[in-house]
Design goal:
Layout (H helix, E strand, L loop, with lengths): L12 H13 L7 E7 L8 H15 L4 E6 L10 H6 L5 E4 L23 H10 L2 H10 L3 E9 L6 E2 L13 E3 L2 H9 L3 E3 L3 H10 L4 E2 L4 H7 L7 E4 L7 E8 H5 L3 H36 L3 E4 L2 H21 L1 H24 L8
Parallel strand pairs: 1-2, 1-3, 6-7, 6-8, 9-11
Antiparallel strand pairs: 3-10, 4-10, 5-9
Helix pairs in contact: 1-10, 2-10, 6-11, 11-12
Length: about 350
């Protein structure tokens, strides 16, 4: 198995200690290095932006302040969603982004960040790290002199901000909506006109009527963007993104040229960040939902089972259609679905459904 795909050292405290020792004993690692890292998420956007800064600070600290991966705001160096080419060419060394932002180039990469009607964090990461998912990604990226590392994890998202309540899915036909990843392609199948916008571009688009509705992320994050000022009807569950995994994208040649100790620091800091951000989002979202409801007048809705069934059927149709015409998409889908089928023997055996008390 390719250990690089496992984000080595994830969440293992002793490795951080070992890295510190390595810095003091490995003369090669004493060299001072400075990398540029452009983020797709602004530093003020809770969870997503600060996660990049925390990662950078951890590496800087573990390296004895010799290796700085400098955070740059979206668009500071290259357009916000165009870091794939910039990192590939070595124009910048790295970016803090999402595989879903590269799906226009390789649609199957959307499987690397979030899957509609997908599993929780444990099963999803099991597929990525131990079920072959990341190995497919690594092969794709290698053709562009890139390496991708799982960088942060966040819990379920909301699935839409609307100006009016959605009583019938017929209301969504022709609706112009910002939507991300595979979920956006699902909505396109039921008649929604979807487009992908960076986070900072969404509010102005809503305000000017360029889009009629949007999804972006979690209650804690969406508050910061102020979507509730224009669209006060917020829908759950986040069927399109039950778990979302971000990406630290690096130039492969430059990464492999790093001292081993610096490579290990990156691995250790990323593993810690995945767990930290996931726990943070789950810990803060209940209060954020309450704040939106009581302070900002947001009404929270749950899609009906019938409506969720329509979304799920459209997802299954999309899987079949895209797999028939895109071999790489099919490879991702077959790997993902095959692992989920195998996982059921364990997952179903451990499932607890509600309360067992009268």
């Amino acid at each position: 198995m390719n250990l690089r795909t496992l984000t080595r050292g994830a969440m293992i405290l002793p490795l951080a200690l070992a890295v510190t020792v390595a810095v003091s004993t490995d003369s090669e690692a004493q060299k001072r290095l400075r990398w540029k890292m452009q983020s797709a998420f602004g530093s003020k956007i809770l969870h997503l932006g600060p996660s990049a800064i925390r990662f950078s600070d951890k590496v800087y600290s573990m390296s004895g302040e010799k290796f700085r991966i400098k955070f740059h705001e979206p668009g500071a160096l290259v357009p916000a969603l165009e870091t794939f080419d910039a990192v590939s060419k070595g124009a910048i060394e790295s970016s803090w982004t999402s595989p879903g932002y590269h799906a226009g180039r390789y649609p199957g990469l959307a499987f690397m960040t979030a899957v509609p009607f997908g599993p929780g964090l444990g099963e999803y990461m099991a597929w990525k790290w131990f079920g072959g998912g990341n190995e497919i990604r690594d092969r794709v990226y290698a053709d562009h002199d890139l390496l991708g590392f799982d960088s942060f994890g966040i819990g379920p998202e909301t699935s839409g901000w609307f100006k009016e309540p959605i009583v019938s899915l017929d209301q969504m036909k022709g609706l112009k909506m910002r939507f991300f990843g595979l979920g956006g392609r699902v909505l396109s199948k039921i008649g929604v006109s979807t487009q992908l916008l960076a986070g900072g571009d969404i509010y102005p688009a809503l305000e000017r009527g360029v889009i009629d509705a949007t999804e972006f992320s979690l209650p804690t994050i969406d508050i910061g963007y102020g979507f509730y000022q224009i669209a006060k009807h917020n829908y759950f569950p986040g069927w399109h993104q039950q778990v979302s995994i971000g990406e630290f994208l690096v130039n492969k040649t430059l990464f492999e040229g790093l001292p081993q100790a610096y490579q290990d620091m990156i691995d250790a800091a990323l593993g810690w960040q995945i767990l930290y951000t996931y726990a943070e989002t789950e810990g803060l979202n209940p209060d954020a939902m309450m704040e939106m409801q009581t302070k900002y007048g947001v009404t929270n809705y749950r899609w009906t089972d019938e409506q969720l069934g329509v979304f799920e059927q459209a997802w299954r149709d999309l899987l079949e259609e895209e797999s028939a015409k895109d071999p790489l998409f099919k490879e991702f889908a077959d790997s993902y679905l095959g692992f989920r089928e195998k996982y059921k023997i364990w997952g179903d055996a451990q499932a607890l459904k509600g309360t067992y008390l009268d």
